[in-house]
Amino acid sequence: MKKLYLFILFLVINFGALALGNYFMGDAVSGEWYKDLNKAPWTPPGWVFGATWTLIMICFSVYLSFLFSIRNSKYVVFVYALACVLNVSWNYIFFNQHLIQLGFVNIILLTLVILYFFISFCDDTLSKLKYLLLPYIIWLCIAISLNGYILFNN
Predict the structure, then answer these.
(1) pTM above 0.85, yes or no
(2) Which of these, 66, 72, 55, 67, lies nearest to 15 by C-alpha position?
């Protein structure tokens, strides 16, 4: 029952963070600035972002529900909060403020935090569940390549 409660809690927090990030993004995706950027040829269509983030946040919420039922400490809360702040702030930094370089650093830091989850919190119970983080890690690598392409080609 505790894991179900935590799963629902993390779904609310994670999707809330996505909504907040989307709010901070404003209308940048449909605006002139983004349209005029030299984007990577492998930039996916817009609908892919929503579908991918939905999958990522469901998997991440399952992982977190197990992690927090086993290791609920101030340190784990801090690492998770850091991931949330980095995730939300990227939208504001990149899309709203047009700070491509800082956005690039931000997305790399977020990737390192999620990799830290993958590597550091893998005791016996989480050893297989950590693979729920792979969609997040893969997507962040794609995001780094997209952000990097814009940074180095504009």
Answers:
(1) yes
(2) 55
